[in-house]
Fold:
Amino acid sequence: MLEVKDLGVALTMGGQSVPVLSGVSFVLDRGHSVGLVGESGSGKSMTALAIMGLLPPGARVSGRIVLDGRDLLALPEREMCAVRGRRIGMVFQEPMTALNPLQPIGAQVAEPLRVHFSVTRGQANARAKRLLERVGLGKISPHRYPHQLSGGQRQRVVIAAALACEPDFLVADEPTTALDVTVQAQILALLAELAAETGMGLLLITHDLGVVSQTVADVLVMYAGRVVERGPTAGVFGAMAHPYTHALFAARPSESGGRPVAIAGQVPDPLYRPPGCAFAPRCARVRDVCATMPPLIGVGAHACACFNPRIAA
Ligand SMILES: Nc1ncnc2c1ncn2[C@@H]1O[C@H](COP(=O)(O)OP(=O)(O)OP(=O)(O)O)[C@@H](O)[C@H]1O
Ligand SMILES: [Mg+2]
Structure:
């Protein structure tokens, strides 16, 4: 089990320490899936980077990230290296940045095996071949280079490499954003399938509520570095309460019958966040009390941080 407890991250900007993430908590079990959604700048990647121990230099972290009773935030880098890739795999948005352009894809899938296990080159290559087959690249030669593949194929290579060491958890940060829509659906289906098949826990990060609703069991809606609504995915979508979740939902392409309608205004810069609820300046339901920070409290079967939630009838 991977448990994130009251996670906070502050970055140094212009000489001052600015919080970009506050009070983020969730549990990811093996065989389970959790989604983080929210607009650009809401703190989704910071959460992923904190889990992987890859925060930018100078970042100050608080809270705990517990894997099998050990706090990852307290691990020395050497031990964190053994966790990264081996216990927790990662897939990021742009496959090209995760791949080495000068190395054949088969070797790149085999490499984590050679790093984390004492296997021969032959054993690693054989397993890489099976992994490439499993992610749907059985017809592509392992001797090909990343630039000879399409974006979707490259992301499949990244997924195969992430799965090589049979991690207990997979963190996928916008794994389909750089891909075209039809390929997106295939990659998400593949991730969900692999998670179910291997029993690994999946943390899926996306700005797309539609993606989350089809792929994960639990969802956390994030805004300006905080969780504003959370719960079982079906429960949150069936009875969403936070005005921000409603706005995100209305901004889905399918809801607006074409291009997504952006939510008016912007996620506030962490340097200039209003006191209290950070969504208040964009919120039609704002009240005086919103100048104080709303706690995350139960609304029916899930939780929402809003003083004036909009409970669907
Ligand atoms: N290296 C950095 N230095 C300073 N600020 C940063 C850095 N990386 C991220 N931030 C800030 O931290 C906040 C959270 O960023 P984060 O990358 O987690 O957002 P996100 O939800 O992943 O957004 P996106 O959908 O664009 O990926 C943002 O306000 C962002 O501007
Ligand atoms: Mg991000």
